Amino acid sequence: MWNEDIGRYEAIYDLPELTEFIYENGAALGYVFIGTQGVDEVQKLLPFVHTYSETDGEGSTITYTETISCDFNLGSPSSVVFTLEMSDLAFYEDGVPVDMNFQVVLIW
Fold this sequence. Notes:
By secondary structure, the protein is mainly β. Helix content is about 5%, strand content about 55%. It has one helix and eight strands, in the order ββαββββββ. Strands 1-2-7-6-5 form a five-stranded antiparallel sheet, with no helix packed on it.
């Protein structure tokens, strides 16, 4: 969902597996899968930053950077927040970013 207050998309999920012990003594890692599964998919550690250059309908070049990241929150229940933010704080015209698949790895 679009967070108007800070200009980014957020997807929040409960993560009850993230205990205080893991939070304090272990590691919590987030990954995003880029590409098509079984074809050209790669797994990228978050944060993942990519700069795009596009030409608009008037022939002007538009350059922006997209950052995909995550935050881990200890609580009851714990949660993970995946975020998508553009350098110009813009949002997708139809209000919906492309589908993304994420992975969380907890190490202790």
